[in-house]
Amino acid sequence: MIGNKGLIKKNKIRFKELDCFRGIAALFVMLFHYSRDFELFFGFIPLQYGYLGVQLFFMISGFVIFMTLEKTTHYKDFIVSRFSRLYPTYWANVILTFLFINYFNIIPVKFTATQLLGNLTMFQHWMLIKNIDSVYWTLSVELNFYILIFITFLINRIKNIEKIGVGFLLIMLAVHYIKKFIDLPFYYVMPLLHWGHLFFAGIIFFKLKSMKANNYYHILILFSMLVQVLLNSNKLAENIIILAFYGLFYLFIYNKMNFINNRILIFLGSISYSLYLFHQINGFIFYKMIDFIHSEYIKYILVCIFSVTMASLISYFIERPMLRYIRSFNNKRNKINFKKLNIK
Description:
Shape: globular
């Protein structure tokens, strides 16, 4: 009998701790950008290392994407899964940001229709088109990871992911030291060369969580930590914080992070993608629009409420319905194709 190939296997496991991690990461990045920007223009004290929430996002992504591949039997399902997760929400945020910037005339920069179209592809990094919002830079890193892991899946080498990962990390180190002496243009073409160890760590943490304990996995995680330190040898505080993220993941895989589960963080995790994409420029524009309020603290709080509210609306009315629709359509199509294959 022909198997139901092409359908994603049902897996109801959902790790609430990861949702909480996402919520914390998005919150830290948002507060960092607001405090940094408002300090630059209004004398606020910045949340100095909040931007490192991005690195936590990368580790979560490595864990979740590999978990997705473990449930995937056909490459089309992986494409549909990533497209439905990334693009509808991204398009909504790009268009809103474009309209906010060009309509309110608060930001001293205007974007053209060509730049808008380039940003909508999510490949503007490689098209040398300016990001409408600078936070989009992380998407090129994510896409770079997706493309490489997708190729690994296509050539049926996921089973060798540990060896492939170690090889990539060694290339990262080589490129890091070589580029100190000569220009390496492909470093721009492959931004993952600076962040790959974090995704790799997420993958290995998934393996530790889902499989029997293996000392080899701990060695790989230590190697990833070493790469983090070597790539950022002059950034002591950053290294300490990012290594603490590894500690959080260890606590998570050994079920020691249940205490972090609460409705607020889970909620922030559920809207984290939209909140990350929406908050920076749109929040600053809103801040300037309420300039009639004299208290900086009240304005700061109102901007946070505004961004969380808008991200929630985008998540509830665009992200979730479109995700369900696209995946449901794909599943129905696969079932139809499966029935055709079983016609006698």
